[in-house]
Amino acid sequence: MKSLFNIEAHQEILSRINKLTEASEGQWGKMKVAQMLCHCQYPLKIGLGKYNQKNKPNPIFKLMGKFFRKSLYNDKPWRKNLPTAKKIKVVEDKDFETEKEKLVNLVNDFHQEKERKNWDPHPVFGSFTPEQWGQMQYKHLDHHLRQFGV
């Protein structure tokens, strides 16, 4: 499984982000490209400790998350049109260039943490190894970049 901590995978993700344009259209789902760029920032912010969740996750959602945990970092691609947690769903219009710049910065910030050994637990899915953090970040970005054809 590719990892955002791997230099080749990091460069691949940046290259794919840079292929997006304001006119890029999703092949599935409801998000516009700028909304997707904004949405993709949330998991990176969570991993970096830059996302302050106001409310604790629903205990039922946390329990369900334990069942899907391994799918976050295995080689099997996610299916199209998976549901998105309300707290990271982006429905308002966003500026493409602003969101693209923010995402690129977060991808770079996350990659810079490749030597980090201790990670806070994910608020829904619990603790991950550093390797799993890198893999799930890559997998989430890959899923949404495929959604927009890059």
Give me some keywords for this one.
mainly alpha, about 150 residues, globular, single chain
Low-confidence stretches: none
- Global outline: globular
Order of helices and strands: HHHHHH
The pLDDT mean sits at: 91
Alpha plus pi helix count: 6
Radius of gyration: 15 Å
Which class best fits the helix and strand makeup?
mainly alpha
Q: Gap between N and C termini, in Å?
A: 19 Å
In words, what does this structure look like?
With 150 residues, this protein is an all-alpha fold. Helix 1 packs antiparallel against helix 5, helix 2 (33-39) packs parallel to helix 5 and helix 3 (41-48) packs parallel to helix 5 (96-111). The chain is built from 6 helices and no strands. The protein has helices at 7-19, 33-39, 41-48, 59-68, 96-111, 130-147. The two termini are 19 Å apart. The relative contact order is 0.28. The longest helix is centred in the last third of the chain and has 18 residues, at 130-147. The chain is globular, with a radius of gyration of 15 Å.
Topology:
Elements: H1 7-19, H2 33-39, H3 41-48, H4 59-68, H5 96-111, H6 130-147
Compact overview of the structure:
The chain has 150 residues and is mostly helical. Helix content is 48%, strand content 0%. The chain starts with 6 loop residues before the first helix and ends with a helix.
